[in-house]
Structures are given as structure tokens and as C-alpha cells.
Amino acid sequence: xxxxxxxxxxxxxxxxxxxxxGQAVGFGKNIDIExxxxxxxxxxxxxxxxxxxxSTRWDGSLSMEFHxxxxxxxxxxxxxxxxxxxxxxxxxxxxxxxxxxGKRIANAIGHINTRGFNISNNELSGQRVQFVLRDIEYLExxx
Length: 143
Description:
- By secondary structure, the chain is an all-beta fold.
- The chain has a single domain (about 15-140), classed as Pnp Oxidase, Chain A.
- It has one helix and nine strands; from the N terminus they run ββββββαβββ.
- The protein is extended, with a radius of gyration of 20 Å.
């Protein structure tokens, strides 16, 4: 009796479209989301090894690269503003969607941490932005 395995559906890079503050902004590339639950050992007097581990706090980061546009006023583009402390500390609300099905991958809230850009020869140039995560929620398209 032969067993056949079905190919699983997987998320691919260009399938993820992004909405920021409710407005579709196309797609980012090289999206990297990290969560750190900061596990710490629980140590007790009289015991050589830890008695267990406990998460002490949560933090995270989200970074991605957006294409650099050479003309203003393109519909759907959100400006990433770091011109003042007030603008730089504003929260951004992200929604990641699977392009082929429309299912939501995750929602996240982040604040700008760092920003930069690259200029590449014979290639699309991008703006690198890293956000400090305030919260992230994984949704129906993320198993």
C-alpha cells in the first residue's frame, strides 16, 4: 500500500501584502518578525540546577524593506516619518494578508526604531525600517 503525502500550502514572500494604518501599501520584502519571551532560570538555595524556567517579560521587533519611490503622491503609500520626536513615536498598525486567499496572517503594532535605505545598481532600491513591537497577534493564515 503506497502512502501519498499532500503538498502543504506555504506562505511565500510575495504572497504577503501589507496594510499600514488600514491603507494597503503593497508589499515589503525581507520581512523579519522576532519575539523574545526572556526565559530566566528559577534558582533555589540547596539545588545545583534550576528548578525550572519562567518568562520574565516580552519584547519584539519587526523589520522590513520597502521600495523607494521617486515620485510623491502614489496612492497607497504611507510615509515613514522620523522628522520629530512626536512623529517618530507614533504607532503604526500593520495587517499582513496572504495575497492569494485574502486571509490574515498577523496584526501588529509597532513604533519606529531605526530607518535607513540602500541604493542598488540594476535593482529596486529599498528603505529599511525596524520597528519595536508593542503587540502582535497571529491570525487564521498563520498556523
